[in-house]
UniProtKB/TrEMBL annotation:
<dbReference type="InterPro" id="IPR014509">
    <property type="entry name" value="YjdF-like"/>
</dbReference>
<feature type="transmembrane region" description="Helical">
    <location>
        <begin position="165"/>
        <end position="187"/>
    </location>
</feature>
<keyword id="KW-0812">Transmembrane</keyword>
<feature type="transmembrane region" description="Helical">
    <location>
        <begin position="93"/>
        <end position="115"/>
    </location>
</feature>
<keyword id="KW-0472">Membrane</keyword>
<protein>
    <recommendedName>
        <fullName>DUF2238 domain-containing protein</fullName>
    </recommendedName>
</protein>
<dbReference type="Pfam" id="PF09997">
    <property type="entry name" value="DUF2238"/>
</dbReference>
<feature type="transmembrane region" description="Helical">
    <location>
        <begin position="36"/>
        <end position="53"/>
    </location>
</feature>
<feature type="transmembrane region" description="Helical">
    <location>
        <begin position="122"/>
        <end position="145"/>
    </location>
</feature>
<keyword id="KW-1133">Transmembrane helix</keyword>
<feature type="transmembrane region" description="Helical">
    <location>
        <begin position="60"/>
        <end position="81"/>
    </location>
</feature>
């Protein structure tokens, strides 16, 4: 099994690759090797889904791969190297909210896998609750990781400390609620938003994991 697609790579994925590779080459030419390292490293990370999917038996929709690549570019390259976290106050909010929504979807999918996708065994509210808890737990663990880095290595990943942590958790909870809501809407046969469509696309390509 692998990543299957009927159309060429999305322009957003191609643009992300061009930005990362362009930065890596530019850094090499100007002697800014940190730029080269981060650009090339981030680019290689965007290729991991293509390598990993066949080995774990998943068929990833190309939209999933694009979302992963854009997120990696936004957080590792633009966020850290481009200093977007400092330049734009809303950058961290967008990334926290977006990742929480994604983990909400992942939680819903995991729950459906556990029950083999049976809507009789997996009530929509049960799936949504599990998905919400899963996403919020990931967010909380991430805050613990940042706190550990700050305490052990003297970094400043949590910026204003408690205030920054609490706002991150609030945003994570809102994003998790949206992602979990998409799982609920899918099982109820409601809505055709991008999150529901993404969930449906993944399930359609991996029916054997969901009892189909």
């Amino acid at each position: 099994m692998t990543i299957r697609r009927k159309a060429p790579f999305p322009w957003l994925l191609i643009l992300t690759w061009l930005v990362l590779l362009g930065a890596a080459v530019g850094g090499l030419l100007t002697g800014e090797f940190s730029v080269t390292f981060v650009g090339a490293g981030t680019f290689l990370l965007t290729l991991v889904p293509f390598w990993l999917a066949p080995r774990v038996g998943l068929n990833l929709p190309i939209g999933f791969v694009t979302a992963i690549a854009v997120f990696l570019c936004a957080t590792l390259f633009l966020g850290e190297l481009g200093d977007f976290y400092e330049r734009y106050w809303w950058w961290d909010v967008v990334l926290h909210g977006g990742s929480a929504m994604a983990f909400g979807l992942v939680g819903a999918l995991l729950m459906l896998m556990l029950v083999q996708g049976s809507q009789l065994k997996a009530a929509p509210l049960t799936v949504a609750f599990f998905a919400f808890c899963f996403a919020v737990t990931i967010g909380a663990l991430w805050e613990i990781w940042e706190f550990t880095l700050d305490q052990v290595f003297g970094l400043n990943t949590q910026k204003s400390g408690l205030v920054d942590t609490m706002w991150d958790l609030i945003v994570d909870s809102i994003g998790a609620l949206i992602g979990a809501g998409a799982g609920w809407a899918y099982l109820k046969g409601r809505g055709g938003g991008p999150l529901v469509r993404a969930m449906r696309a993944f399930i359609d390509k991996n029916r054997r994991l969901f009892g189909g």
